[in-house]
Sequence to fold (495 residues):
Amino acid sequence: MNNLLIFPIALPLLIGMLLIIFRKNIWLHRLLSVMACVFSGSVALILMNQVKDSGIQTLQLGGWQAPYGIILVADMFSALLLLVTSIVSLCCLLYAFHSIGKESEEHYFYPLILFLITGVNGAFLTGDLFNLYVFFEVFLVASYVLITLGDTRKQLRESLKYIMINVISSAFFLVGVAYLYAVTGTLNIAHLSVRVAEAGQDGLITTISFLFLMVFSLKAGLFLFYWLPGSYSVPPGPIAAIFAALLTKVGIYAIFRMFTLIFYHQPQVTHMGIGILAALTMILGVMGAVGYRDLKKILTYNVIISVGFILIGLVAFTEQSILGSIYYLIHDMIIKALVFLIGATIIGITGTSKLKDMSGLIRTHKALGWMFFIAILSMVGIPPLSGFLGKLYITKGAFEANNFWLGGIGLLASLFILYSLIRVFMDVFWGETVMSKDEEKGTTKGVMIPIVLLTGVSLALGLGAEGIHEYVLMAAKGLLDQNQYIFAVLDKGGI
Fold:
């Protein structure tokens, strides 16, 4: 048992509850929120090294042994995502200090962000399906409030759509949990893996797996993403950044966990279904990214494209492809937070998200422009930047698994990502300067620090990839070897 596992969940939760009491003390909110992110990241680093040295870490809450009690599990995959979540959350909070506004800060912005982090961390660490549902609801309820922080009619409309879609998907989540429990008699994820393997993944269990795929596809923006472009384009900048970086990634994590540990016996059915959805997601995402001339919409459609691309690795289901998916998932969490924060800064300066009303910002904001250019190259996968290794391994794994059509669509999608974002760069930063420094609607004062930090992390992931390769490789091998997870949870638990 490792008591450290409770801290990434309990600490932001308790601090968020405490901050509700001291509503007017904004400096206390800022300080404790940053401390929560830093401490959670430190715990994640410790867990990564413990998993590396001693194997998967577990904690049976209340002393109840698995599969009967609530269990937290940290393998290398979840520990890596915990660390990236802390980095992204910290940078979005630092950005919010100078951009979110006093009114939002006094209306529980920081407690809500901490509750959202609680849910995300809990989803990464939980070892049973029902608590996965609980933690999904924790961060979704926080996001329901965060998406409404503002005073526009469009925000209200999109927030209602966002809430309605997620309430419906949560209802289907519960239905799936009920059916799976009725068939297997357990909700512990490791125990489910054993029971499904023993019984065989027949037609009924495969049908249940597609129900879960539908639920997590709604959460991740896989094909069923019609709610995402509007919902992610209306919140304030730091909220949109944390949504784009974290919320869809929890859905991706759930798909990987379920379809590598439980529903992996019929890949020609389940994984091929995921492949078709991934291909359609990339194609439709590309159409949106290329078709719009609005900065917010272009960025949100690029979120959708990356969801499809990451899941190519799961479809191929080889060590190379899974390795690439994890690399690219880590990269995408960082880079999406970065481009959304840069986008929010551009909109703050110009007062608009319409590309036709922007031009020549490179003359007054050189650092911002070149960091956006670096982010573009990273998203496309230009070596040696952070997106390169992920795209290389995913594409190589797809070709090795004879999924040439899917790998080809992924490569074509990368070209359209380049086109859509280079067009943004040329329209916004190149050309004639149409706005002098005095005419700017906003300022970059204070907001450049988190942007520089995220750019630095992105560059470090690319230029120093060998530093995390051992950890990512271990995470990939752990996803492909179900016995590691099962042994850590059940055998150590006394079953």
In short: The chain has a mean pLDDT of 93. The CA atoms of residues 23 and 106 lie 6 Å apart. The radius of gyration is 22 Å.
